Amino acid sequence: MPDNNVRSGRTPGILAKLRKIFGLNIGTVMFGAILIYMIFSVILYLTASHMESYQVPSGPLSMNETYTGLAIMTEKVVQSDAGGYITYYAREGTKINANGAVYSLNTSKSADNNASLSKEELSDIRSNMQSFSKGFDPSKFNSTYSFKYQLNGSILQYASDSSSVSTVTTTNEDGEEVTTTTAVSSDPNIRRAETDGIVLYSKDGYESKTVDNVSSADFDQNSYQETDLKTEGQVKSGDDIYTLITDERWSLLIPLSEKQAANLKDRTSIRVKFLKDNLTQTGDFSIKEIDGSKYGQIDFNKGLIRYASDRFLEIELVTNNVTGLKIPLSSVATKEFYAIPSKYFTTDKETQQSGFMLSGRNKKGNSTTTFVKAGIYGRDEVTDEKTQKTSYIYYIDKSKFKEGDAIVNTDDGEKFVIGDTEVLEGVYCINQGYAVFRRIEILDENEEYAVVSKETYNGLVRYDRIVKNADKVSEQDILY
């Protein structure tokens, strides 16, 4: 049968052509719609400005600068007054009193210096041994020898009041019998300290250095050499035996750049953190010039015993005292709020929600009150000059009221006309998936970051997630 279209001389319509090409059906229509939606979504994503989040940490605005300090102490090297085999009694790095036993010299390697101990003295030594055992570090096995010297010295100190040789039997805490021989206190082989001080069995050539005669070359750690004075052999008269630090006052000298010196020039005291043990203490601070360069001088009057064996100390100057919550400046936004006295804030008896009682009139012209739920975005403390009573100003979202609205104090019926506003600084918190304005109080800032208070009412807390670029979002945005 002849085609009607051919017979009429008309060409097939566009719809017929598409049907022939694509096989148009419901599946094709759905696929096309999905494809168009995906293309549209990709275009929107590529052209939209993307929001970045930031997790709020706690800390100072910037890290404190670290330095390597040269320790200057009052010290002297003690020489042997005779020859012989040496036995050490004082523990290295510990303080010894004047006339305390440091070492002894004998004609043979084995020295006979036994002493009797009372029950109390044995208990004291046992306690020292337990303390050493608890704090023992296998990587510092050398400390075992120093502890041995300390025990020997302690035993000699306990025996220093004895005047003759005798054998005594005592019972220790475990019920065991201990027999010891008392030493003669006037043993000429024992060498004692002339003054109070801290004992070191090493020297490094800095013993005669003072803050006035130190040079820039003394700060070169590559050329620094320390000599160990301990020996198990025989010593001769005049040999260096130990170093005695005789004064608790000591100094640290630190090299400074011109910028560092300028930043510290007005300081007379400074807090120092010792990286060796993370302990801190405050010292007197001054700046001096050595060989044309600037150096900081920090003077201490305590704490030397912890660092007596260290000529060079890694320290941190605690100059960044302002700590809080650290945020990027790009996250800071401003928002205007109504300022309302706290005495108008109330709780609805039916819903137990917090807000304000809005005053109004009904159609008949009678006075009415309507509860308006409202959250507090911030508050400031105010003191009445007459009564000296303290109250607060609450900051309320402007969307809750209109300028000129009146709210009522439910206690005395007093009214307040809303109109006063205040602009607050804040950030957008996104913990719940939508942006919520949180007030901040900036304590310190630099070119990129600010430190804000942890104590701000309804403010940020550590690990909050905030919008990093505040200009890309508003409180109405639902982010995810």
Q: Main traits of this protein?
A:
5-stranded antiparallel β-sheet, 7 helices
Secondary structure blueprint with pairings:
Elements: H1 4-8, H2 14-22, H3 26-47, E1 53-55, E2 58-60, E3 66-72, E4 75-79, E5 84-88, E6 95-96, E7 101-106, H4 119-134, H5 143-158, E8 167-171, E9 177-181, E10 190-192, E11 197-200, E12 202-203, E13 227-228, E14 234-235, E15 240-245, E16 250-255, H6 258-264, E17 269-274, E18 279-290, E19 293-300, H7 304-307, E20 312-317, E21 323-328, E22 333-341, E23 346-347, E24 354-361, E25 367-373, E26 376-383, E27 390-397, E28 406-408, E29 415-417, E30 421-429, E31 436-439, E32 442-445, E33 449-452, E34 465-467
Secondary-structure-derived class: alpha+beta
Shape: elongated
Radius of gyration: 41 Å
Give the strand content.
Answer: 35-45%
Oligomer: single chain
- Main sheet: which strands, in order across? 3-16-19-18-17-20
Distance between the termini: 64 Å
Number of DSSP E strands: 34
Q: Residue ranges: pLDDT <50 for 5 or more in a row?
A: 5-9, 160-185
Kindly state the mean pLDDT as a whole number?
83
Quickly count the helices: 7
Q: Level of helix content?
A: 10-25%
- Which sheet architecture does the biggest sheet show? 6 strands, antiparallel, barrel
